[in-house]
Amino acid sequence: MKELIKKLSDMRGVSGFEYRLSDKIKELFSAYSDEVYTDKLGNVIAVKRCGKPCAKKVMIEAHCDEIGLMVKDIDKNGFITFVCIGGVDTRILPALEVIVHGKRDILGIIGAKPPHLQSAEEGKKSVKIEDMAIDVGLDYDEVIELVSIGDSITLPQSVGDLGGQFSGKSLDDRASIAALIAVFKNLQKVKLDVDVYATVAVQEEIGSRGAKTASYAIEPDIAVAVDVCHAITPDNSYNAFELGSGCIISVGPNIHPKLQKRLSKTAKDYNIKTALDVAGGSTGTDGWAIQVSRNGIPTAVLSIPLKYMHTCVETLMISDVEAVASLLTFFIQNLDENLEEWLCY
Amino acid sequence: MLLKKLCETNGVSGDEGRVRRLIMDEIKPFADEIIVDSIGNIIALKKGECSDKKVMLSAHMDEIGFIIKGITDKGYLQFETVGGIDTRVIISKKVKIGEKEVPGIIGMKAIHLQKKEERETVPEIKNLYIDIGAKNKEDAEKKVELGDYAAFDTGYQEFGNGKIKAKALDDRIGCMVLIEALKHKCKYDLYVCFLAQEEVGLRGAQIASYRIKPDIALVLESTTCSDVFRSKEHEYSTVLGQGVAVTFMDRSTIVERQYSKWLYDTAQKANIPVQYKKTTMGGNDAGAIHICGEGIKTGVLSVPCRYLHSPAGVVSKSDIKAMQDLTILFIDRIEELVQ
């Protein structure tokens, strides 16, 4: 599992640039799927059929895009200014090493005015994004040969093994993709009563756009979105879970209550560690878009606790990803065609 | 490559041991005598044809970093900065802790959990932690002890058009040039000093210069290069790629005018790219050396370094070569400066 997560974390594709990784993701699913395809927006969809006519469809979903930056302009000295794609915490940016995806991938350092040229007042404030620029060590003429306005920029990789934990970039939401792949692998030799669709969606970070078109096209009978939630750190314990809590199951208006109950019961039956995450409105995941696709889809959200979300040092516990994969596996293998029976209010 | 090895070896002020061992191995064949003093400076002597005069060359071995000062019950590390670090450059950066080089990250709660005012403000060091993925305090204590030092975990990489990105370029560049310099014969006794604890107050320089009492000293450094985004041209202290920088004055030293002029003119005449350091900010070991004992004639050469004191500095290879060339000329023509 760790190797798989690492492989996915090393891939680079911010929202709108998922084409950089979709082929690699297709390949990871191909051995365990009856069909893998890419739709118009770039969502990768892997299908595992049960072979029965008019089978019910279960969709499990995670997103493949990552937060990052985009080239806004290039100044006369060759410094590259940028905007954020998705919710990047700009406080992590000063002196960060990034990769500018120009004609080829090039290393850049995010620089700002040195402290001695700033007023005391400026020194107390976070550096504003408009006051930062990427230094690729090239002169203007050389930069414009390689880099264009609109090129994407990704953040550096973290350390990997961190004690008993794992730290990497873009674990939001590549760790969840690893869980989906594990589910498909687990189900390889299992006789199913439903068709399973694994949707790896694009453009979640800028508004769940991929999930919207994928769930419309697939029209599943049940959907489970997998994403990350906050983990407890010394500076925050609100709305967060300890690493190692297992699979976090969401409850609230975004979630079909019967579906949630069934997931929780499955976890109990198979001794899978879980905790409940209560959200009074949107879960902030693709589950929010999926729930209201077409006539509506019974939706659940599972998540993996993650420290330092939306930074390049996101950190999780592999056992939590495994818990999500196990729960989904047991949940799916126990489904029969009579979904309405237990889903009905 | 020597500079890569020097930069990637950790040596925060007070913890220069690993850098010192690396340098000792490099210089042994070229020095007539080597001592390591009480603070950990390396002083290597290369005898000249005559021992009437003493020439001191120095660079500092230490780098900015962190020291571990507490471990929370949940196993997170509290720390202090060692040397001048702008807190804004440390968030979400990787570090390595102690001799065992335990990997760690400096985390901060996710953007979703921050209030608007928090986003606009620089966090205080006391509210930041190094995360080593420990289960709890006991687990953390197996890997880290109070007083362990931590350095940025940044690889050395050449990029752009002849640029280098690395940590600790300040002042391992100086160390590298000194190692080269030691291979050259000087007319007088040459004391090549690799100094400790510059970043916390020029500590090593004070005692080394007192011990040697040289007739002339030359400090090799890295200096701030502010030819960066949003700086105005008149604010540029040095410009990357335009040569070795000669200091005439900074916060700690006024270099004797004839001396700084000699360095600048000699470089120019020899077609070595040279520039003056145009701002008077900053300071370095010259501040301690020139007022040591009865006073010592001290000059400073620096390589311009963008994003100094951050996890990733940027220098130009051509500027390093210029500093090296001018240092060798200084040794060869020392009689013009010391009568």
Compact overview of the structure:
Chain A is 28% helix and 26% strand. Chain A is an alpha+beta fold and 345 residues long. Chains A and B meet through β7 and β10 of A and β7 of B.
What does this structure look like?
- The complex is a heterodimer of chains A (345) and B (339).
- With 345 residues, chain A is α+β, with helices and mostly antiparallel strands.
- Chain A is built from ten helices and 17 strands.
- Chain A has helices at 2-10, 19-30, 120-124, 140-146, 171-186, 209-218, 257-269, 287-291, 318-333, 339-343, and strands at 35-38, 44-48, 56-63, 68-74, 80-85, 97-101, 105-111, 133-135, 152-154, 160-162, 165-167, 194-201, 222-230, 247-251, 274-278, 299-306, 315-316.
- In chain A, the strands form three sheets. In chain A, strands 1-2-12-3-13-16-14-15 form an eight-stranded mixed sheet, sandwiched between helices.
- In chain A, a hairpin with a 5-residue loop joins β1 and β2.
- The longest helix of chain A is centred in the middle third of the chain and has 16 residues, at 171-186.
- Chain B is α+β, with helices and mostly antiparallel strands and 339 residues long.
- Helix content of chain B is 25%, strand content 26%.
- Chain B has helices spanning 2-8, 17-27, 116-120, 137-141, 169-181, 203-212, 257-269, 286-289, 317-332, and strands at residues 33-36, 42-46, 54-60, 65-71, 77-82, 94-97, 102-107, 129-131, 149-152, 157-159, 163-166, 189-195, 216-224, 244-246, 274-276, 297-305, 313-316.
- Chain B has an eight-stranded mixed sheet, sandwiched between helices.
- Chain B is globular.
- The model of chain B has no long low-confidence stretch (mean pLDDT 95).
- Classes of the chains: A alpha+beta (345), B alpha+beta (339).
- At the A-B interface, β7 and β10 of A face β7 of B.
